[in-house]
Amino acid sequence: MEESVFARIASLEIRKQRLQELSATPAELQLLSKADLEELRRMARPPQAVRECLEVVYIVLDPQKFAADIKRLPPDGVLTVKWELVQAMLARFESFFPSMESFDISVLMELPEVARYISRTYFGERGLTQER
Fold first, then answer.
1. What is the pTM assigned to this prediction?
2. Vertex 111, ends 55 and 46: CA angle to 5°?
3. How far apart are alpha carbons 63 and 108 in whole angstroms?
4. What is the pLDDT of residues 30-79, one digit of tens each?
């Protein structure tokens, strides 16, 4: 019986390592500057695709904050993410990039309802697309 516990732990460690490799920070993130974030932050009414993209980042960086609200939504319900909160996230330049670089996807994986919500809302039929 102990072997199965140790085998499960080893399996989970391998899975964790693979997830960490997959969630490594892309080089494109390094191309963003403080000035870029400031430009986005100052937009009073950003284009819809920009707003939605940043809403995804906002939700993904703190999925626990949204999990309960998402569970209470009707099947096609949509959360209102206040642009002011996204702007505040962008204003915290010194912590924004480190939080992106150290993003732990396992937190999101533990909240499948949040992942499904993001997929449905932002990448589904009415969400972000290549054309947008």
1. 0.72
2. 5
3. 6
4. 577 888 888 988 999 999 989 999 999 999 999 999 999 999 999 889 99
